[in-house]
Request: fold
Amino acid sequence: MAVETPVAAPRPWQDYKSDLKPIWCAGCGDFGVLSALYKAMAICDLDPDNTVIVSGIGCSSRLPGFVQTYGFHGVHGRALPIATGIKTARPDLNVIAVGGDGDGYSIGAGHFPHMARRNLDVTYLIMNNNVYGLTKGQVSPTSMVPLVSLHKPVDSKRWKTTPYGMTEESINPIAQAIAWDVSFVARAFSYKPNALADLLVQAIKHKGFALIDAFSPCPTFNQDQTDDFYKEHTFDVPEDHDPTDQVKAFELALRQDSYPLGVIYRHDNKHSMLDELEALRPAQPVDSVLGVSALMAKMSA
Ligand code: SF4
Ligand code: MG
Reply:
């Protein structure tokens, strides 16, 4: 992957910083993700008044509060349905959904393939730390016991939900996203914030549903997938990789020895549900068609 150092942004990244101070633990990978997001938003010159960041529940889902845009801190696993509602009601808004691996790939997993089918123009940024952090260290769908076992015998008994050891395989969200034909699929590492910012710029500019799965270490509850682990077990997507080739993208995504960083799959010009919705949208404001205001007035009288 040719990593571009982000070009000069039309507005300072500080424009996107809210007054709220992140309360993540020292060394949390989510700090790198947040700084990359500020940079990417500045490069894309996103108007804060026309941008919404949506999240579910988890440490990473606190992120909307730290960005000076509209935000929606939703309920567990429901970032994508909320993003869907916002984008279909107001297609002119920039919609970014964020969250963790537990939120997005466990309780929220059922929404994922349908978001891919609808291909709404939404960027989904997952901070993947391979653990549940907010609830203090349970295994998540991406916990990597099999891979870790390969490198060193791991005492997985210390994972709180698996006192006798974890026996489940971890899921491969990148391969799943390619199978569902998510129209932009990339992987990043939060300790490489410039590369992540570059991917975010591409994802935001991409017309359609875009997933970035960013490895984002949780030093408090995951001492296996550390920054050193990711440095050792990741590689840049080769320069000659064609992300529009779905089979080649699968080959990269299914690598067992190491994880590719960069754009792995892209389906350009994929149909979006919004194309039809625009044709169906009533010419009059919805309120005048349904009489919502009149109904509300009647109910509160
Ligand atoms: Fe980050 Fe882990 Fe602390 Fe949560 S528990 S803030 S994910 S380091
Ligand atoms: Mg997590």
